[in-house]
Amino acid sequence: MLVTELRFDPLSGRWVAISPARADRPDAFLVRTPWVDSEPRACPFCPGATGEGPPLAQLEGPDGAWTSRILSNRYPAFDGDDPFVMVNRGPVFTEATAGGTHEVLVFSPDHAASFADLDDRQVRDIMQLLRRRLTEHATMHNLRYTQVIINFGREAGASIEHPHGQLLGISFVPRDLAEEQARFSRFVAGCLLCTAIEAEETSGRRTVIVNDDALVVAPYWSSVPYEMLVLPRHHSPHVHTETDDGLAGVGRAIRDALARLRSTIGDVAYNVVLHAAPYQHGEPFHWHVHLWPKATTRAGFEMGTGVSLNVVAPERAAEQLRAAGEAQG
Ligand SMILES: [Zn+2]
Ligand SMILES: [Zn+2]
Ligand SMILES: [Zn+2]
To answer: How many domains is the chain built from?
Structure first.
């Protein structure tokens, strides 16, 4: 494929332009900026750190020391019990209360271990801890949805080096989620992502990782180079209703996908984004995980049109990511 091809993203409803010729430009991919502590200060997530308050949830090892934990964010983006109430302050000034919760999921006591470095047990435990907390969020009266993310590297928005995820419980259903819900509803041939799993396994051209509980693909409609989509095989609209095996399988798939990304294009920054149905909604939805490397910059055309220009065809990306897995054994 030499010329640019337009592909439709059935989850976001946006068009993507796959434009591989532009990858030949020098320095097509950015490697993440290393952390340099100009004024070394104690890491707030390392064992023994003070000032973070009691954990909201945590798992402990046989020696009683914590192995992974969820803390309140010290600088919350959303906070408080206020429900979503919209107020018009003029013909073009509309505002609403920003109640909610902002929490940090510290993967392990190890300051240097990213999600890609965790073992099977750690990954399973983290996913179960996450489910436990999301089950609580589902009962909080002012939360409509929780956005779970991992920002890795400064370019992806991380402000603390110690690897962690975040849970942002919010009092409204955000636009991108509402758009995905609408896309699931409009898809008439069954579940959109159950269908994608079947179609991608049949084709095999974009599959990266296949395990008993999850499938990782470089989606047909990839908007950035080496984008991946993690698809749980078990159909569930919510994370908090997922099975133990499903959760563990998805956790391992995310871990393996991130390790392959690193061995394919180097130590790049990335965002991991979980999408599940809002708490008061269910079907039709199939929870899933987006993995967006931050190896390129969104420029004017993309900002202005919402159309992404992707310089690496997903078929090529999948081929390289699969080969990275074989090299790792
Ligand atoms: Zn630390
Ligand atoms: Zn499904
Ligand atoms: Zn999504």
So the answer is: 1
Instruction: Give the Å distance between the CA of 232 and the centre of ligand 2.
Output: 8
Ligand 2: centre distance to CA 235 (Å):
4
Q: Which domain holds residue 162?
A: 5-328
pLDDT digits (tens, 9 = 90+) for 135-164: 999 999 999 999 999 999 988 989 899 999
Q: Which residues surround ligand 3, an ion (CB under 5 A)?
A: 275
Ligand nearest to the CA of 198: 2
Report if pTM > 0.85.
Answer: yes
pLDDT in tens, 7-27: 999 999 999 999 887 766 656
In the three-class reduction of DSSP (H, G, I as helix; E, B as strand; rest coil), residue 280 is classed as coil
Single-letter amino acid, residue 266? G
Q: Return phi, psi of residue 164, to 5°.
A: -160, 160
Residue appearing with tokens 């065809």 = 313
What is the CATH number for 237? 3.30.428.10
User: Looking at this protein, which amino acid is placed at residue 118?
Assistant: L
- 268 CA → ligand 1 middle, Å: 20
